[in-house]
Design a protein that fits this description.
Blueprint: H1 2-46, H2 49-59, H3 74-98
Helix pairs in contact: 1-3
């Protein structure tokens, strides 16, 4: 009987952890959906004339010193786009492996 009790406790722990992760994933997917529109806008911005104008303004010292300007670094946006692709590939691989 002790074996049965321990097994049920272990399975209950797994179920609770699974439910918690699923809830977190649901929230993360909602956030991902919102982020995707930001990614598209950032990607367009990086290759736009507006970005070049903004970059020039930054180089000429026209933007406030206290202002965040990571977006004016090609690397800043590019690294974010790459991070998104790497994460999408990881998710794809997890889904693909789950189907096996």
């Amino acid at each position: 009987m002790k074996e049965t009790i321990n097994r049920v406790k272990a399975m209950e722990k797994r179920l609770r952890r699974t439910k918690k992760v699923l809830k977190s994933m649901e929230y993360a997917l909602d956030e991902w959906d919102l982020m995707n529109s930001d990614i598209k806008i950032l990607s367009k911005y990086l290759s736009s004339d507006e970005w070049k104008v903004d970059m020039k303004a930054n180089q000429n010292g026209l933007l406030p010193e206290s202002m965040h300007r990571d977006v004016l670094s090609e690397k800043g946006i590019w690294d974010t786009l790459v991070d998104q692709r790497v994460l999408m590939q990881r998710l794809f691989e997890l889904i693909k492996n789950e189907q096996k």
